[in-house]
Write a structure and sequence with these properties.
The protein has 559 residues and is α+β, with helices and mostly antiparallel strands. It contains 21 helices and 16 strands. The strands form two sheets. Strands 2-1-3-4-7-6-5 form a seven-stranded mixed sheet, with helices on both faces.
């Protein structure tokens, strides 16, 4: 098998249903409406629909072939309301492949419906493969829709003084060369911006940038000596103003490509992978599927993504069989349900979390062998190539042998191995708490942290032991720890690494406290806040005072 076949196994083979939205295709609804009115549909339907009937029949047969078995549905797009709510989108989310006519309301109508459908699909929870076709060239449709699906690519910041300086310079330039500002801004449009996204760079001196932005670069190069603003900053200002003036999407993971060898344009935005193609007369709709495959191959998803996609498909495909595996052993299932029902808050939420985690683990157990088999075949195909570093570069555009990149990779790996997002409705072993301006980890045994354990009154404080985490100053010092006492964490997007010891040699004793978790260690499931009290020596009273300080559970050790 070549890599393309693995891509098809991960993304095309799992397809079970196809929806076509096109006002020039016959629909089941229209046929049944004619039957109820005792009319002959083919005598009254518009000519384009009649002409496309044989194409739809051929495509339906293509989808129903034994190696596919796809369910096909057709919608004419007529009941889609161009407003804040599109009722059909809920229907679309359940479709694995959508073929969307860009001009649903006819070639002369504005394509608002298609644009809104694409935007909604990109933010749905279901991964969608979408083919957008039109009589217009793919580049035109791509340019018209891409900005609404992509977030601003370049994070550019300007101070008020910088903006004032650039605008004053442009005004001076415009006074010397009339309309130069209009020419400058008009030279940088949607196509230029999308190409910069594809290049993933906007450096003025970069050869690729200079080659594609020829007109813009030439104008900036011609600026008079009186214009003192740096050429790079002028280019960045153009990009900055373009992004501000464009109705771009909220931030999400995206990828974009340029012109392919087959004239395809495609993009990935959130949970939508969109391919743009041109409608051609005498061309079967069945030819659209190979174009989708070609675009997926050009996207070049990493083996890591293929394995995850296979995982998702295996879970979805096995359905009830995986459910039955997870629900084996009636007596055990009865016990788990009973434990949830008899538990009081906050213990009940923790019991629910434990139960859901068990089912998740058992569902994974049911599909892991299939995914492992896929991954084994995939890795074998890649391993036949000699230069493994080049394989990694092909998918991630990174030199994993580079010291800086290797260090970042090891930190990310260590974060995964050491910690995870906190779970549970009450304090338990391994919870990392930001409390009293420091990070602490709960190390009391989980069996001692069960809410309302023994004779404890509901809502009473619960004793636990916590060890203070001491932050390492640099990534390098954390990675060089030879004593296994470093903990790596991602807290609110910040990569942090801690030690249980003040010194790095592991010889110093850890600092620990015995604390009280109020309300039996209950954790707010939204804010993750927990109320903690400690005894402090009162200077005036010469006695211990109980001081309550709210904390936040920010992470959890993985072990």
């Amino acid at each position: 098998m070549n890599y393309s076949e693995f891509i098809q196994e991960a993304f095309i083979k799992p397809i079970r249903s196809v929806l076509i939205i096109d006002d020039e295709f016959p629909t089941i609804d229209s046929l049944l409406d004619c039957h109820s009115d005792q009319r002959n549909y083919w005598e009254t339907c518009p000519a384009p629909i009649k002409n496309n009937a044989s194409d739809l029949l051929a495509f339906t047969r293509f989808c129903r072939e034994t190696n596919r078995g796809w369910l096909v549905d057709v919608h004419d797009g007529q009941n889609i309301d161009v407003s804040n709510e599109i009722p059909i989108v809920a229907h679309l989310r359940e479709r694995d492949l959508l073929i969307l006519d860009y001009h649903i309301d006819g070639d002369g109508a504005a394509p608002q419906k298609a644009e809104q459908i694409l935007q909604r699909l990109s933010t749905s929870e279901h991964f969608n493969l979408v083919i957008v076709y039109s009589k217009d060239l793919p580049q035109k449709v791509f340019s018209e829709t891409a900005l609404g699906l992509l977030p601003p690519k370049f994070i550019l910041t300007f101070t008020a003084d910088e903006i004032q300086q650039i605008e004053e310079d442009l005004a001076i330039w415009d006074s010397e060369v009339p309309d130069i500002c209009a020419l400058l801004f008009n030279s940088f449009s949607v196509n230029e911006y999308l190409e910069l996204i594809r290049l993933d760079k906007c450096h003025f001196q970069n050869p690729d940038v200079r080659a594609f932005l020829g007109a813009t670069i030439a104008l900036i190069d011609s600026k008079p000596d009186e214009v003192t603003s740096d050429s790079q900053r002028i280019l960045e200002y153009l990009i900055y103003k373009f992004q501000l003036g464009s109705n771009m999407a909220a931030s999400r993971i995206t990828a974009i490509c340029g012109n392919s060898s087959r004239g395809l344009r495609w993009l990935r935005s959130g949970n939508a992978f969109v391919v743009y193609v041109q409608k051609k007369q005498q061309s079967s709709s069945a030819n659209l599927v190979p174009l989708m495959i070609a675009a997926l191959v050009e996207w070049n998803p990493s083996p890591n993504r293929l394995i995850l996609s296979k995982f998702r498909a295996a879970l979805d495909g096995r359905g009830t069989m995986a459910d039955d595996y997870a629900l084996q052993h009636n007596e055990m299932q009865a016990l788990w349900l009973h434990d949830i029902l008899v538990a009081e808050e906050p213990e009940r939420r923790s019991e629910i979390v434990k139960s859901v985690n068990r089912y998740g683990e058992r569902l994974l157990d049911a599909v892991v062998p299939e995914v492992v088999s896929f991954a084994d075949r995939l890795v074998k195909q890649l391993s036949d190539q000699l230069d493994k570093n080049e394989i990694v570069k092909r998918f991630f555009h990174l030199d994993i042998q580079n010291a800086t990149i290797k260090e970042k990779a090891m930190i990310g790996h260590n974060i995964y191995c050491c910690s995870k997002r906190p779970v549970g409705g009450h304090l338990t072993t391994g919870h990392v708490i930001f409390w009293s301006e420091n990070y602490w980890v709960c190390l009391s045994p989980a069996c001692d942290l069960v809410p309302n354990r023994g004779n404890a009154a509901p809502g009473s404080p619960m004793r636990f032991k916590a060890v203070k985490l001491c932050q390492h100053s640099t990534d390098n010092s954390a990675l060089k720890d030879k004593h296994g006492g470093t903990v790596f964490m991602n807290i609110d997007g910040v990569l942090l690494h801690f030690s249980y010891h003040k010194g790095r040699d592991g010889g110093a004793s850890p600092e620990w406290l015995e604390l009280l978790a109020l309300k039996q260690g209950e954790i707010d499931h939204v804010s993750k806040k927990i109320d903690i009290a400690c005894n402090e020596w009162g200077a005036e009273s010469s006695a211990f005072n109980l001081r309550t300080v709210p904390g936040v559970v920010v992470s959890q050790l993985r072990y």
